[in-house]
Amino acid sequence: MRLSSRLSLTQQNALLLLVFFLAFELLVASTITYFLMLPMARRSAADLAGLMTLSAQTWSELPPVTRPAFEIELARSHALALRAEPPHDAAPPSWREPYLHFLVASLSDRVGEPVATSREDIQGENWFWVSLPAGSGRLSVGFPQSRIGPRPIHALLASLAGGALLTLLAAWWLARRATRPLQRLQRAATSLGRGQTPERLPETGPREIAALSRRFNEMAKQVDDLLAARTVLLAGVSHDLRTPLARLRLAVEMLVRKPSEELAAQVEGDIEAMDRLIGDVLTLARGFGHEASQRVALHDLLANLVRTTPGAAERVQLEAPAIELEVPVGALRRILANLLENALRYGGGQPVTLRAETLEGGCRIGVLDRGPGIPEADREAVFRPFYRLEASRSVSTGGSGLGLAIVRQLAEAQGWRVSLQARPGGGLEAWLQIAA
């Protein structure tokens, strides 16, 4: 199993930020050390080496009576000690500080020969001693470890440790801040997958998170609508099938006792109505697949629709300029056929106008009738499945209640818009707007 699959997003982000910071810190520290601290350390070591050799030479030239005062002043002002004899019980030095390496190298260059070094513990503090030529003899010059101010290695380690700690804290906080919306999304998706209605996610935060939350909320609403539509479909079809089934049962009993052509025609009509209802329900339930677009002359398509729709040739007035469209022809024809059939059915026997108009960025097609119209409060509700303005449940007078629902769903699947509005002078206008 890969490491990334065992770590949470928070841990992965924290580790990545830590690695990047450590690499950046090492690069910066190396650059500063090479171009700044090492030259400064070499110069400081050269100055100290000059002071130590000068002190040893001056001490050898002073009268013995003034040497103690010189040693006291040297210790007070420069933290250097002079000793005529080498330190007793001295141990070999362990030069961990780069500064001391530079100092020894500078001293060797100044005296022209390698210098002897040693280490001694005086009152719990390390002292470093160097044997230097002084006149005709040699003199030991020493200083405590505390005199060495710059410690680049300690500074580097301290900055790396502090930076790593701050990076881990910042990475953890940033990762938690970034993953909190994703955790809410995970819980909501799990709830939605179980068939429950999740709470809407807050559409706040960074642009990507807000867009993701907004899209999830839209998807959750679509799922709710689908579940509600399924419930309505099942309830509506079960309700609307009871009436023709009851008539069929009665007609079958009467046919057994006394067959007649009238009863047979009634049975056949009920069967056709049931078949039509079930077909509409299946069409609405399965949705609409993608249909390839075709180039079509709108006037010819509308004229053909008028010719093939029963009762339309005598009542429909076609008003359409020459418009070329690149559209799914089957979907467009199905929408207009449903709207035209509704207009012919509820138009009160009055003429129906089928009109096409060009718009900026597309066109719109209207089916205009002179029927009783639809109250403004019901113009959106009629697009719901099985919603009827006609009070009876008769399929012949009120339809199945699925025609406009199919129109709306099919139009939305193509990115079109269907709207209803009152027609001046009475009647209803149904408009289909198609974007280019």
How would you summarize the topology of this molecule?
Layout: H1 9-61, H2 67-78, E1 81-83, H3 98-111, E2 116-122, E3 125-134, E4 137-144, H4 152-193, H5 207-257, H6 261-286, E5 294-297, H7 298-308, H8 312-315, E6 316-319, E7 324-327, H9 329-346, E8 352-359, E9 362-369, H10 395-398, H11 403-414, E10 417-422, E11 428-435
Parallel strand pairs: 6-8
Antiparallel strand pairs: 1-4, 2-3, 3-4, 5-7, 8-9, 9-11, 10-11
Helix pairs in contact: 1-3, 1-4, 4-5, 5-6, 9-11
Characterization of the model:
The chain has 436 residues and is an alpha+beta fold. 57% of the residues lie in helices and 16% in strands. The chain is built from 11 helices and 11 strands. It has helices at residues 9-61, 67-78, 98-111, 152-193, 207-257, 261-286, 298-308, 312-315, 329-346, 395-398, 403-414; strands at 81-83, 116-122, 125-134, 137-144, 294-297, 316-319, 324-327, 352-359, 362-369, 417-422, 428-435. The chain has a 5-stranded mixed β-sheet. Helix 1 (9-61) packs parallel to helix 3. The longest helix is centred in the first third of the chain and has 53 residues, at 9-61. The chain is rod-shaped and about 150 Å long. The two termini are 52 Å apart. Residues 391-397 have low confidence and may be disordered.
